[in-house]
Amino acid sequence: MHKVLSIAHRGYSKVAPENTLAAFKRAVEQNPDYIECDIHRTKDGKIVVSHDPKVDRCTNGTGAIAEMTYDELRALDAGSWFGAEFAGEKLPSFDEYLDLFAPGDGPRPQIELKVEGLEADVSAAILAHGLEKEAMVISFHYSAGLRMHEVNPNLMFGALKSSRAEISDAEAATLVEEALSVKADLFAFNYQNVTPAMISATQAAGMKMAVWTIDAEDDMRKWAAMGVDCITSNDIVLLNNVLTDMGLR
């Protein structure tokens, strides 16, 4: 029976503020296969962890990350919005996130490039931490995948795509071809519209099929049974338990 990889979405974000060290450390304790994060670049060139391009939703500040310095961002509270016990949590630097991983042991980093132009610096940071074999870079920006392979062909790349509409078999085949054209090792799609044809076409092309973001047990069981290779969830404990119960972990 095939195994399904578990991916902690923005850390263990069900119980701690997303994309903070609190969420990432709690995810490490659960030993998923991957812990996902999102990254942006600051005004002064630093790489920080955040999903949104602006700090408004997940901090006590306002403004665009690209228009703020690293020190300005670090002065913000990225935890109180989630709960008082997380007051004072900071937006992590990319290096702080990578520091949580050990080469050849435990969870692996999965890094989503939210903007283009980060490829060389991301590769350098991954190499500096000795995580070239473990790390996977993912993005909706397919051109970033090609640049990442130019910078470091040894790094795994995952192509992301989503759709609110149902996907026909012909459309699934086209989407898979597009992912393959940027040398993707993994193709990830919003789970609601993933079909058996998409799964089989992805795997036949030599890529892993990933789905995101599933938090309901019934849905986890459904798509795991359909044969996907990876599931991303905010509730990594539930996901790991479901996959273990199904004999897929």
What does this structure look like?
This protein is of the alpha/beta class and 249 residues long. The protein has one domain (5-245): TIM Barrel. It has helices spanning 21-30, 70-74, 94-98, 119-128, 142-151, 169-181, 196-204, 217-226, 236-245; strands at 5-8, 34-41, 47-49, 108-113, 136-139, 156-161, 186-190, 208-212, 230-233. Helix 6 (169-181) runs parallel beside helix 7 (196-204) and helix 8 (217-226) crosses helix 9. The mean pLDDT is 97.
Protein topology:
Blueprint: E1 5-8, H1 21-30, E2 34-41, E3 47-49, H2 70-74, H3 94-98, E4 108-113, H4 119-128, E5 136-139, H5 142-151, E6 156-161, H6 169-181, E7 186-190, H7 196-204, E8 208-212, H8 217-226, E9 230-233, H9 236-245
Parallel strand pairs: 1-2, 1-9, 2-4, 4-5, 5-6, 6-7, 7-8, 8-9
Antiparallel strand pairs: 2-3
Helix pairs in contact: 6-7, 8-9
CATH superfamily descriptor: Phosphatidylinositol (PI) phosphodiesterase
Could you tell me how far the N terminus lies from the C terminus, measured between alpha carbons in angstroms?
10 Å
Q: Fraction of residues in helices?
A: 25-40%
Q: Biggest sheet: strands, sense, closure?
A: 8 strands, parallel, barrel
- The assigned CATH architecture is Alpha-Beta Barrel
Order of helices and strands: EHEEHHEHEHEHEHEHEH
CATH-defined fold name: TIM Barrel
Unreliable segments (pLDDT under 50, ≥5 consecutive)?
A: none
CATH class: Alpha Beta
Give the percentage of residues in beta strands. Answer: 15-25%
Q: Given the structure, what is the number of helices?
A: 9
Radius of gyration: 18 Å
Instruction: Count the domains.
Output: 1
Overall average pLDDT: 97
Widest sheet: strand ordering: 1-2-4-5-6-7-8-9
Q: Can you count the beta strands?
A: 9
Helix/sheet category:
alpha/beta
